[in-house]
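#lab-general

N.A. 3:47 PM
ok so I finally got the sequence cleaned up, no stray characters, all 128 residues accounted for. can someone with queue access submit it? mine expired

B.Y. 3:52 PM
send it over

N.A. 3:53 PM
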Amino acid sequence: MTARTALLSARFAIVSAMTGLLLAGLFALAARASMARAADAAEGGAKVSIDMFAFTPETITVNPGDSVTWSNDDGSPHGVKYGDGAPGNDYMLPGAAYTRRFDAAGTFDYACPIHPYMTGRVVVRGAQ
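B.Y. 4:20 PM
back already:
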């Protein structure tokens, strides 16, 4: 290996390392912002945690007009798909959150569209 090749190889290694650090920093900032949004959303109502491939609590009871926030506290992507056909969130990365307001009384079943064995239920008081 010539001196010039060694110098170019060293420069490439430095640029690669700096690029890796920059990307890691950007990822950390994005994750922190996503978790902050999840925390802000959860303050306004009931919360369901997605962790270890399960919704916790599996069944949650709220009043009409309340919001429920699902936060992905797991290391894998998940989602929330409703049995009543209402729009949900098909893909939430770890740290992300999704909120739905429930205005009508009733029972609302949901599942993770990525892992359909993960199921949960929202019960809005006043249901018959």
